[in-house]
Amino acid sequence: MTEYTTVSIPKELAARVDDTIEGTTFSSTSDLVRFLLRSIVIQHERSGGDLSESEFQEIAEQLTDLGYLR
Fold it and tell me: Which range is the signal sequence, renumbered to this chain (predicted)?
């Protein structure tokens, strides 16, 4: 069984996330956050453990192009 923890984000950001996931397959802020964190961790692991700011930006751009971020 998977155990979970709580991550806090500002309410303003949560509202923006709600707007962002509207019309996507994500059913909640938690779904999007899990997806984004997995994507970043996978990219980080593939790059040998060093994720630069430009690589992070590239991930964000890819997610924007896919419609997950605005």
Answer: none
